[in-house]
Design goal:
Elements: E1 4-9, H1 21-32, E2 36-41, H2 67-77, E3 80-84, H3 86-90, E4 102-106, H4 108-117, E5 121-125
Parallel strand pairs: 1-2, 1-5, 2-3, 3-4
Helix pairs in contact: 1-2
Amino acid sequence: MAKKLLIVMANTDPHNHEELGAPIFQASVAAAMEYEVEVVCTATAGRLLKKGVAEKLFVKEGSGKSVYDFIKDAHDAGVKFLCCSPNLDLFDMTKDDLIPECSGIVGGAYLIEEIMENEDCKVLTY
């Protein structure tokens, strides 16, 4: 049985707030089930890891809990959030612009290697 869940948020657009809840919530659930969980934000979803962005987003209009609150909850449950390196250039960010819950920066080779070579890893994409 797999021990690691890799969630790739590539097509999840921060402009469509309702899309943001499921992957982060599922990451939290998997962590609570004691799986190792990593969420890699790439492409448009990479904006979520920039300070000040997720704090202004809400999955449901009128909710008192921001997307950043969901990220913090997931992080507290053990989820690692990773930024794909091209996002730094794409969104004019530096490492200092990333939220504290971001555990690091990875390149495309990291994703390919985890998916192709880690038999203990399952992948969900959003």
